[in-house]
Design a protein that fits this description.
The protein is mainly α. Helix content is 69%, strand content 3%. A two-stranded antiparallel ribbon has the order 1-2.
Length: 197
């Protein structure tokens, strides 16, 4: 269960992050083809994920099938990008993270344990055995650890950070904001998963 004291802080954080991805989505809509299409798709998924996570924080009762229709294809798309030859150093780790985050969205709502809301778990059948808690613990722990990595990138603590950014990627200041946004979403999703344990 998401503690009621965390609902508003999580909501405000998600509104800020979702707004950022919304502005990026609109900005990329006017860009050309090729990499811009991939960027629009990625920003669209992040935009949907921010809205979905906000709905989950407040347990708005969206059917699990809706989340599956949105996030299973997104997860498969990110997994396909992960399997391809990387365009840049570390890109497999990033797209793999997004694939796993998409899978975690589906897990929270469509598999045993449901998702965490203010009134407990909603969405799916009650947990069966020990394995749903173990999966939620592993996913939640991974997302929290990854959030630390994203935050370190966002505040430029990682030594490999480059100010030179390849074409089609946000400028250095945008890349730092992007890292902080991913860190925020990772923390919220990780805490929501751990709340189902």
């Amino acid at each position: 269960m998401v503690f009621p004291a965390l609902q508003w802080p999580m909501t405000l954080a998600l509104v800020a992050v979702t707004s950022y991805h919304g502005f990026r989505f609109v900005g990329l809509a006017s860009a050309g083809a090729g990499r811009a299409v991939r960027g629009r798709l990625a920003e669209g998924v992040h935009l949907l994920m921010g809205v979905a996570m906000t709905a989950m924080v407040w347990a708005l009762g969206v059917p699990p099938a809706v989340w599956a229709v949105l996030f299973v294809p997104a997860g498969l798309w990110f997994a396909a990008l992960t399997a391809r030859r990387p365009a840049a150093r570390g890109s497999r780790a990033v797209t793999g993270y997004f694939a796993l985050a998409s899978a975690a969205m589906v897990w929270m709502t469509g598999l045993p344990g449901g998702h965490a809301g203010p009134h407990g778990q909603h969405g799916a059948a009650p947990p069966v055995g020990w394995w749903p808690s173990l999966v939620s613990l592993a996913l939640g722990g991974y997302l929290l650890l990854a959030a630390g990595w994203w935050a370190a990138r966002g505040v430029r603590l990682t030594p490999a950070w480059r100010d030179h950014v390849p074409a089609g990627r946000p400028a250095a200041a945008g890349a730092r904001a992007e890292g902080l946004c991913h860190a925020t979403m990772g923390v919220v999703m990780g805490l929501m998963l751990l709340a189902t344990v």
